[in-house]
Inverse folding.
DNA sequence: AAGCCGGGGGC
DNA sequence: GCCCCAGGCTT
């Protein structure tokens, strides 16, 4: 087993010197930029995160730039990336480090792990890439490579399964090459040992890979749970009066702190008659329906059915907690993807 | 331990 | 349609 481990590690490190996977944060030692990149990349493909990383480095070149920014500015630049609590935690942690640590990024694994929005993976990534500390990363790539190569059949999405993979990864880590090895195994998972259609024919680990020999590549790694999808029905009332629009900061379980139009959620999408009833309830009597538009969006565990009612008002509405803005100002606000799609196609 | 948090891309 | 992605937080 020790011999197999050594072959595994040395083969990966050797393989990594033969490939090119260019990423703007690769090889950087500045912990601020590494942290930024790792938060952006949580549950996010490298190709999706790349533009956001470049934008954030440009807009917030130091941690104090980020700390001094407004949360709405950060969210606007995070718009479209998803998991918006990452942006809030990023801001809070930037403020914390600026104030409590004089702007100096923590240098130990435990301190890094204690930062908001930083879990075991991200702490290991920062500790190894910035300081070459011997902590093994365990992300989706690592889980897949280890499960297949060593034939680990425990489900990874349970607490004991996570522990198994973490212990295995830590045991394999060469303490004198933490950064290089962590980078190598993730690159390998992304380029060779891919989730679908892995490149087993040309894989440098092929002749010692458990899954390849047993023909179990397509069933490893094991997952225990399936996510179930819940349907939700959102009726957006897009009120307009004298060329002004009304948006509100959302305070709900998801898309929190993004903006939205007047929203009523229901069991199924409203008909125009039901809209008229709702307008009466909020004391709007002189209104004309200009158009309605349906859109859907799939989230990880939800399907959103949205119907946009564009409603022209004869009188100025009296809303609490809404901002009155002109059409050209809409682009200053961070919206969920489905609202941006609506705006782009109908305004 | 289980459930929740977005959006995009591959097949 | 379903799965996965440089995961973490809350309950």
């Amino acid at each position: 087993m020790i011999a197999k481990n050594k072959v595994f590690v040395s083969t990966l490190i050797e393989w990594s010197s033969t490939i090119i996977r260019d990423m703007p944060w690769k090889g950087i030692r500045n912990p601020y930029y590494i942290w930024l990149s790792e938060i952006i990349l949580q549950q996010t493909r490298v190709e999706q995160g790349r533009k956001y990383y470049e934008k954030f480095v440009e807009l917030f070149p130091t941690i104090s730039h980020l700390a001094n920014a407004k949360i709405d500015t950060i969210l606007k630049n995070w718009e479209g990336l998803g998991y918006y609590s990452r942006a809030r935690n990023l801001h809070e942690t930037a403020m914390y480090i600026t104030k409590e640590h004089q702007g100096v990024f923590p240098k130990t694994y435990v301190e890094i792990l204690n930062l908001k929005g930083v879990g075991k993976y991200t702490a290991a990534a920062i500790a190894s890439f910035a300081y070459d500390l011997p902590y093994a990363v365990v992300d989706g790539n690592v889980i897949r490579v280890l499960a297949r190569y060593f034939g680990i059949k425990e489900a990874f999405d349970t607490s004991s399964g996570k522990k198994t993979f973490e212990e295995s990864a830590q045991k394999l880590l060469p303490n004198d090459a933490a950064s290089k090895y962590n980078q190598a195994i993730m690159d390998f998972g992304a380029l060779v040992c891919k989730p679908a259609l892995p490149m087993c024919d040309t894989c440098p680990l092929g002749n010692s890979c458990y899954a390849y020999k047993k023909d179990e590549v397509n069933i490893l790694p094991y997952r225990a749970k399936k996510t179930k999808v819940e349907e939700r029905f959102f009726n957006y009332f897009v009120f307009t009066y004298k060329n002004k629009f009304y948006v509100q900061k959302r305070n709900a379980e998801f898309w929190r702190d993004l903006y939205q139009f007047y929203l009523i959620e229901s069991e199924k999408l409203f008909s125009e008659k039901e809209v008229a009833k709702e307008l009466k309830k909020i004391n709007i009597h002189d209104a004309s329906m200009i158009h309605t538009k349906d859109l859907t969006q799939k989230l990880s565990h939800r399907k959103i059915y949205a119907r946009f009612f564009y409603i022209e008002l004869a009188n100025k509405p009296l809303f609490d907690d809404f901002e009155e803005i002109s059409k050209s100002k809409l682009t200053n606000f961070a919206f969920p993807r489905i609202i941006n799609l609506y705006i782009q196609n109908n305004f």
Remarks:
- Chain A is about 45% helix and 15% strand.
- The first strand of chain A starts at residue 230 and ends at 241.
- Residues 171 and 298 of chain A are 39 Å apart (CA to CA).
- The radius of gyration of chain A is 25 Å.
